[in-house]
Design goal:
This protein is of the alpha+beta class. Helices cover about 45% and strands about 15% of the residues. It has an eight-stranded mixed sheet with strand order 13-7-6-10-11-12-1-18, with helices on both faces. Strands 14-20-19-17-15-16 form a six-stranded mixed sheet. Helix 6 crosses helix 11 (about 320-335). The radius of gyration is 25 Å and the shape is globular.
Length: about 600
């Protein structure tokens, strides 16, 4: 087991100066959570099933066991040795203990807008590397400021896993290895199934952009003139298989131990993809997964540049959610290299020394690569992907219509899904809880009595426009309230998980957790989340169930980008049809609200 050489407790500089004062994630009142849970079932269940589930919930709430489980959970939350009562459970159940391949089922991606200043792929890659190094430098020297939510600092714990870190496959659960920043100032470059490494700083002086580009040119020439067994594909295999194959690599040759250490301890990875995507969907696929050969899916930060100078970011999700990496890539995209302006007149460009990172592959390893490639191809080929660029309006008009942009999009999603599939089904919206120490996310259950009443009203020709608008605004208000409660740590799902986790061996599981409504209502037919940037062509991930969609939305100033994934054909799902349904619903909602504005004039 490779050891971490950097302590997880190391905290210094501005980024972490607020950590000691941060509030701890609360345990909500049991009665409030159970009432909210019962209400969330109302728009999802038939009358008979709802009556049964409400009886089960009420009996659980009155039971001595429920009170004892709540007491245990509160004791855990008050334990000074545990920074966050949810953290260990959540990280293991949702990520480290999850055994399906990271690609496509865990990792997410951001596809960047084109950069008119960079026409050559290695030129763009060099600019990205310079920017990422600059961001890392601020983190390491302590000058990076903490993120803020209005006047509240956000927890910076996840930044410890951004650079010089790597997920390591193991059984029954993976773990994250973090290494010292000092002495590990290297970038790993993947190209044509091969890996290379170079130091980005020598004697305290970072390479210039021109020097990095020249180095990348040499690396590409070396990679394209040779072939190798694409060992990187193993990182996209089932986690247990990858754990076994990592051990096989180590047993095959001591060379592999050196290569694995170099990759895992590097600051970050750059993938130079041998593709030239044109469409939005092609770009998303190139950034998200490519052909799997020139990736190391375990690295938290992988920048990707294609042969036609398009670029993006692929993130491993286990220890970092989207907001820290959004901050990183926004910095990277907007980065201006001042040193380059000063050196513009200089013609002296040095090529940095780089090292090949070879793997010695035994027949067993070569066979494992073939199997992993098959798993990868099946997994990514099942993903039906649509990237909708909805240009009719964006955040500015939504706000002029008196609506919360996020709640507005959630209602459009509900309307589109209901029209397409005939009913509302359990929907997950990720809500950030990083105002709490080691906080990550909570679920906002987007399907409510108010949202379904509004969707029914739009399907009823006898309902007046005024009534539809009234119901719509009630749905927005309810969704906004639920989101605020989730952000404040007062959601349903994490609390119920905590009560389940404090059960002791031999104790009978309460009926509330055996009730089919519990598993059904948390089986996310729609998994949704917002990351908004004017600098992205798209961002997204996969669905979380074969029965559902993964819907990532970017609310830009004057447009919307909706990235939809599903397994087409299964359960009547189709991302193209959903995108069309969303577009129609978005126009209908806008027109509905504009009619209100016209009547007021």
């Amino acid at each position: 087991m490779p050891a971490s050489s950097r302590s997880i407790d190391d905290e210094y500089g501005k980024l972490f100066e607020q950590q000691a004062q941060m509030s701890r994630l609360p345990v909500p009142e049991l009665s409030a959570t159970l009432a909210k849970y019962a209400e969330s079932l109302e728009p999802l269940l038939s009358a008979d099933r709802l009556a049964h589930s409400k009886r089960v919930i009420e009996e659980f709430g009155r039971s001595d066991l429920a009170k004892e489980l709540q007491r245990r959970l509160e004791a855990r939350a008050n334990d000074p040795s545990i920074p966050n009562w949810l953290e260990e459970w959540w990280n293991n159940l949702s990520y480290m203990g999850y055994r399906d391949p990271l690609i496509p089922y865990v990792s997410y991606h951001y596809s960047f807008n084109d950069d008119p200043e960079c026409v050559r792929p290695n030129q763009r890659a060099a600019k990205i590397i310079c920017a990422a190094i600059s961001f890392r430098r601020m983190l390491v020297d302590g000058s990076l400021e903490p993120e803020m939510a209005k006047d509240k600092p956000l927890c910076s714990h996840s930044y410890k896993f951004m650079f010089n870190a790597c997920r390591i496959p193991d059984k029954p659960s993976d773990y994250c290895r973090i290494v010292q920043y000092r002495g590990n100032k290297t970038v790993v470059v993947a190209r044509n199934g091969q890996f290379f490494s170079f130091a980005f700083s020598h004697d305290g002086v970072s390479l210039s952009m021109a020097e990095i580009e020249a180095t990348l040119d040499r690396i590409v020439a070396a990679a394209d003139s040779n072939a190798a067994v694409p060992v990187g594909i193993l990182t996209a295999d089932n986690r247990d298989s990858w754990a076994d194959n990592r051990k096989a690599l180590l047993q095959a040759s001591s060379v592999n131990a050196v290569t694995l250490d170099a990759i895992e301890s590097s600051a970050f990875l750059l993938s130079l993809e041998k593709s030239s995507p044109v469409t939005r969907e092609e770009l998303s696929r190139a950034i998200w997964h490519g052909d799997g050969h020139s990736r190391w899916a375990d690295k938290p930060c992988q920048f990707v540049v294609t042969d036609n100078a398009r670029a993006g970011f692929c993130g491993e999700h286990s220890m970092m959610d989207g907001t820290p990496t959004l901050r990183l890539v926004e910095y990277v995209i907007r980065y201006k290299h001042k040193e380059e302006e000063e050196k513009a007149g200089s013609s002296a460009v040095c090529v940095a020394a780089f090292a090949s990172l070879p793997f010695v592959t035994s027949p067993a390893v070569a066979n494992a690569v073939k199997k992993a490639k098959s798993v990868f191809n099946v997994g990514v080929s099942k993903q039906h992907l649509n990237v909708l660029n909805f240009a009719a309006y964006g955040k500015e008009q939504i706000k002029r219509l008196g609506c919360s942009p996020d709640a507005f999009i959630q209602m459009v999603i509900q309307l589109a899904y209901t029209r397409l599939h005939g009913a509302a089904r359990p929907t997950y919206e990720s809500s950030m809880t990083r105002t709490f120490l080691h906080g990550r996310t909570e679920t906002c259950r987007s399907v409510t009595n108010e949202s379904t009443a509004w969707c029914r009203a739009l399907a009823d020709s006898s309902t007046t426009t005024q009534e539809r608008i009234r119901l719509f605004r009630l749905a927005l208000e309810k969704h906004t309230r639920l989101t605020r409660e989730a952000v404040a740590g007062r959601g349903v799902d994490r609390h119920l998980l905590g009560l389940r986790m404090v059960l002791r061996p031999g104790e009978q599981k309460p009926e509330v957790f055996e009730d089919p409504a519990y598993s059904y209502s948390s089986h996310w037919y729609l998994s949704t989340s917002q990351i908004s940037s004017e600098n992205f062509t798209s961002y997204g991930w996969s669905e979380v169930t074969p029965k559902g969609y993964g819907i990532a939305y970017n609310i830009r100033k004057d447009s919307l980008i909706i990235h939809t994934t599903c397994i087409r054909g299964s359960y009547g799902l189709d991302s193209d049809r959903f995108a069309q349904a969303f577009e129609t619903a978005a126009i209908d909602v806008r027109n509905m609200l504009l009619s209100e504005t016209k009547e007021q004039q």
